C-alpha cells in the first residue's frame, strides 16, 4: 500500500474521531453509518460487478476499507452471484451450513477515493440526524422544568431566545403582561413541551405557566426540593397575582414560613424574578372549609358552609372584609376558586342578615 494512501486513511480516521468528540455522536454509530454509505456507493458505482449483496468493513485503527461479496449457502445454487451450493461452500470450509454466508473480498482498486463523494452526502445527513436526536433527547429530559435563556431579538410580538445549543420563541400569549425583554438579558423559562422536528427540536416555553412558579419555589426552598414541604396547588394570573397552597409532611416544619424564608428572602427572590408579581402563600388543609378560608387570604373569613354534592360553598365575611375577599375585579375569589377547585359564593354578615329578615 502506497504511503500516500496510508496517510489519507489515517486522516479519515482522525477526522471521524474529531467528529465524535465535537458532536458527541457515538463512534460506533458513525462507523456503521459510513459503512452503510459505502455499501450504497458500491452498489451505485459497481452494480454490474458480481454479487449485489455486499458488506463493507472499515478498520477502526487504520481506516482501511474492504468490500466483501456475500453469497448465501443453499442446498443447490441457481444464481452464482447470490448463492453458493453447500458442497462448494464446504469445500472452502467444512463448517459452513445452509443459511450461512460465504464472503469473498471484492474491494475495487481506489474504492475509497471513488466512493468518498457518494458517501459524503449520506454521512453528512446521518450526522445531522444524530445531532438532532441528541438535542431532542437533551431538551426532552428538561420538559416541565426551568431553563435559562438569553434574549436575542424581538419581532412582531415574539421574543427570540438563545438556549445555548438551539433557539426558541416566546410567543405573545406566553409573555408576562407588561414585562419587557432587553437584548442579552437572561431570563428563566418554563419548558411546556418538546417536539421532534426535521430541523431540530421544537421547544415551547412560557413565562405565564403556573409551572414556572412551582419550579422557582422548588429551587429557592430546600424543604420543597427535598420533599418535606409539598406544593398542593397553584393558581396564577401572570403579572398580577399567584396563590400557592403548601403542606408540610413534618409537623415541626411550618410550610408557609419555609416558603417565605428568613426575612422573606426566598419569596422575594421569586417575586423579583416574576417582576413583582404578588404571591399569596396558603396553608393547605384536607378540611375543605378550612382550605377555602385560607385560600381567600388576605381576607378574614367568619364561616364557610360546604355543599359537597354541588362542589360549591358559601363564605361569610364581615362587611369590611367583603371587597378584600372578592378582590379587584373579582380576582381574589377567582384565584381562590381555581386553587381549591370549589365554586365560592361570598356574602357579608349584613347581607346574610337582611336575607334572613326578608
Automatic annotation (TrEMBL):
SUPFAM superfamilies from the UniProt entry: Nucleic acid-binding proteins, Prokaryotic type KH domain (KH-domain type II), Transcription factor NusA, N-terminal domain
Keywords: Cytoplasm, Elongation factor, Protein biosynthesis, RNA-binding, Transcription, Transcription antitermination, Transcription regulation, Transcription termination
The Transcription factor NusA N-terminal domain, residue ranges: 11-133
Location of the Transcription factor NusA first KH domain: 207-284
Highest taxon above the source species: Bacteria
Function: Participates in both transcription termination and antitermination.
Family: Belongs to the NusA family.
Record's protein name: Transcription termination/antitermination protein NusA
Subunit structure: Monomer. Binds directly to the core enzyme of the DNA-dependent RNA polymerase and to nascent RNA.
CDD domains: KH-II_NusA_rpt1 (cd02134), KH-II_NusA_rpt2 (cd22529), S1_NusA (cd04455)
GO MF, one annotated term: DNA-binding transcription factor activity
All copies of domain NusA-like second KH, residue ranges: 288-351
Major localization class: cytoplasm
Subcellular location: Cytoplasm
NCBIfam families: NusA (TIGR01953)
Native source species: Youngiibacter fragilis 232.1
InterPro entries assigned: KH_dom-like_a/b, KH_NusA_2nd, KH_sf_prok-type, NA-bd_OB-fold, NusA_N_sf, TF_NusA, TF_NusA_bacterial, TF_NusA_KH_1st
A GO term from the CC aspect: cytosol
Short name of any one Pfam family annotated for the protein: KH_NusA_2nd
Entry's Gene Ontology BP terms: DNA-templated transcription termination; transcription antitermination
HAMAP family in the cross-refs: NusA_B
